[in-house]
Amino acid sequence: MAAESDSGSSGPRGPALAAWRPVASAGSADTDQAGRILLLMEGRGNRQQLANLLSARYRVVQVEDGHLPAEGFDLAIADGPALLRWQDALYEAKHAQQPVFLPVMLVLPRADLRSRAGRLRSIVDEFVVSPIDRAELLERLEMLLRARHQALAQRDQFVRIVNYDRATRLPNRNLFHEQVRTAIEAAKAKGESVHVVAVHTPFTRVLETFGQRGLDHAAAACAERFCHLAGDDVGLARLGTEHWGAMLFDDASPMDRVLPLCTRLSKVERHPIEVAGEPIRPQVRIGVASYPDDGSDAETVISAANIAATQANEGEPAFFSPSWREAVLDHLRTEAALHDALEQGQFELWLQPKLRLADNRVAGAEALIRWRLPSGELVPPGQFIPVAESSGLIRRITPWILATACRTVAGLRADGARDFVLAVNVTPADVSASDFAARLQALCAEHDLPPQAIELELTETMLCETGADTIGRLRALREVGFGIAIDDFGTGYSSLGYLHQLPVDTLKIDKQFIDGVPGEAGSDTVTRAIIHLAREFALETVAEGIENEDQLAYLRAAGVVLGQGYYIARPMPANDFAQWLAEWK
């Protein structure tokens, strides 16, 4: 039995697939193409003389059945009678080659030079006097061919820039869309299908952490793996920072070839990519759409495949469903509305108290953003925060949260809550911003706050995927005095060794474990393990989502330091918190 291979086997080939593999990083004009000389000489003597002179160095081509050669040429040499005969054809050939230079040289007697030169400038680029001086002819010919060679090289470079991705040398979005359009036109005539596979690799954090050079390195490594895994009969392209495309062109059903292709492409996750010394394991989301089932044109089919990729689970392809298009439209509408919310001040800061379980004192709160529409309706956070994060708008929202949080906690401390600590959710992208630390410290100084008044919360998954640079920035913030908390602890995949390296002060036990205590063996075990782990590392614990007295008593007895949840208090507008705090006391 043959061994299983990760790469695709050969099969029906799509149109122009040769253009789909990585293009050479530096091209040069084909010497054969750059040296084809077309002889259009009515005078037999000059024609034979030139053929003998040029054939040793160049490829000499002739007219075919009353037409210019189909293979093309790089320079034409004509005498007066031939030029009259071929004038229109040469003009059309030169026009078709624009903006690339296609030179025409005219051989004529010296007596005709002055009278004819001015009238022929629109077609003729160089005049050679007969009888021909061989050395002069070769010198002028070389000059014209050199100019054409440079024009061809510039055109090829322009084509690479316009149609190929710089980092991976794969076809880019422009060429991919054109190839899919071409494939669909061919499929319409034959009654066949075109299957488009969209692959999403979340590289945004790679860019934020390692910069453009790190992103380019990761993309090039992924492209090399994708090409190996896909096989020679699949067209691959890089469509954007973290978007890739593949196309299959045949009359087979998607299950016959598309599913095996998706399985192969998903294997890119098997081995990490090293970026700046850090192992990055690429995750892929794969979506599939087909012509004619999911769209009648290239734009629609490619869009459908990308929509399907956003709905896919890791390692399992998703086939497009029309209902998903409406979900994408909702996403776009929410994103547009978020812009308005930022400009019109529709966001509010709400606080959920944190109780010190040993003595029932309020030690602080978690800052939560809420979005109130002009109608007064509140938009659920789960509906707009993912949109803000995926669109990048969170980078504009976070500064507002930090400024409002600092102003709020300053007011609470001034009213008597002297040791009050306010926790703010941030992302690695926030922390890695060059001005984040300076801006946060400036806000504290503006409100006369010590850094200890602000705690920064990042989820466990985010921290585990964060690069060394961002960890270093967190460490520097912690050394200044800001608290660092791991949110949703227990849901990610941090190891004990990695946890020891992280600059953190607090572990927040995720609500899914609190829901099962007391009484559920698994939740009890995990919760007590986290509490024990925190003690070993001298970290504070916070239990999230406390909803009844039994949970509160259990967690207090287990040694959890702080608790928050609906049983203690629901989130409330910051303006109402001071009154609630006074009543609690």
UniProtKB/TrEMBL annotation:
Q: Which PROSITE patterns match?
A: EAL
CDD domains with a match to the protein in the record:
EAL
- According to the entry, every stretch annotated as the EAL domain falls at 331-585
Q: Which domain of life is it from?
A: Bacteria
Entry-linked SUPFAM superfamilies = EAL domain-like, Nucleotide cyclase
What the entry lists under InterPro entries is as follows: Cyclic-di-GMP_PDE-like, EAL_dom, EAL_sf, GGDEF_dom, Nucleotide_cyclase, Rev_trsase/Diguanyl_cyclase
Question: Which GO MF terms are attached to this record?
Answer: cyclic-guanylate-specific phosphodiesterase activity
Provide the protein name. Response regulator receiver modulated diguanylate cyclase/phosphodiesterase
Q: Which organism is it from?
A: Alkalilimnicola ehrlichii (strain ATCC BAA-1101 / DSM 17681 / MLHE-1)
